[in-house]
Amino acid sequence: MNKLILLGSMTFAMIACSPKEPPTGKLTKDHSIEVTYETKHLNDSMVLLVRRENIYLHGEKIKMFLRMDTIPSAGDTVKRDTIHKTIVVPKEYEFYVTVK
Fold first, then answer.
1. Full-model pTM
2. Residue 58, CB-side half-sphere exposure with 13 Å CA sphere
3. Is residue 35 part of a domain?
4. How many domains does the chain have?
5. Is 72 within 8 Å of 47 (Cβ atoms)?
6. 85 located within any domain
7. What is the residue range of 83's domain?
8. Domain for residue 20, yes or no?
9. pLDDT tens digits for the chain (100 residues)?
10. Is 97 among the domain residues?
């Protein structure tokens, strides 16, 4: 039984730590803007929002912006694994991007 709990915990940890989406394969970089958003949990009530922008023109990066701000935490959510243990994890923000 202990081996089963250990195996389940290791599998959960590996899935939780894997990247959610693969990065974009190849940018044309002729005239493009690359934007990356990321959140980092600072504590129970605050989240650090990081926005990186790279501006490309004629294949060269001409400018880079890095913006950081703190935002309120979205709270916690309760998850149950297959062994009926209750795990409290921080909620993640959802990103919606509008491009014109």
1. 0.60
2. 1
3. yes
4. 1
5. yes
6. yes
7. 27-90
8. no
9. 444 454 455 555 555 555 566 666 776 788 888 899 999 988 888 999 999 999 999 989 999 999 999 988 888 877 766 677 777 778 888 888 888 7
10. no
